[in-house]
Amino acid sequence: ILAGHSVLVAGNVQDAGTDESVWYLLDYQKGKAMPQTILGHLKAGIAAAHQDPTALLVFSGGQTRPAAGPISEGASYFIAADAMKLWDTGATSSSLNYN
To answer: What does each C-alpha distance from 11 to 28, 35, 49, 70, 88 come to in angstroms?
Structure first.
C-alpha cells in the first residue's frame, strides 16, 4: 500500500515529480521537496511490486482536499505515475476508484 499525501490540481502532470504547482500542497508541505518525495515513494512502490509477479500495488488516499475538486490522493498518485511513465514494460495497471 502506497499512502498518498496530496492531490493533483493542474499543470503538466508529467512534471509531477519536480513541480510543486501540479499538487495541492498544504502550507506545511510547501518548499519541502514534496514532488520529489512523492516521486521517490512512487518509484519505490512500483519497484517493490515488480519484484513479485503476484503483487498488487494499492495507491491509498481519499478526497482530502475539497478545494481541489473530486479527486483522491490514490487516484492522483496513479495518474502521476502513469503520466511520468513509471511503469515497467512488463507491468499491467488498472484503476478502480470507489468514492
So the answer is: 21, 13, 28, 17, 25
Strands 59-60 and 2-3: parallel
pLDDT of 42-61, one tens digit each? 999 999 999 998 999 999 99
The CA dihedral of 29, 33, 34, 37, to the nearest 10 degrees, is: -140
Residues 28, 26, 64, 44, CA torsion sign = negative
Locate 34 and state its grid cell: 514534496
Q: How far apart are CA 99 and CA 96, in angstroms?
A: 10
* End-to-end Cα distance, the chain: 18
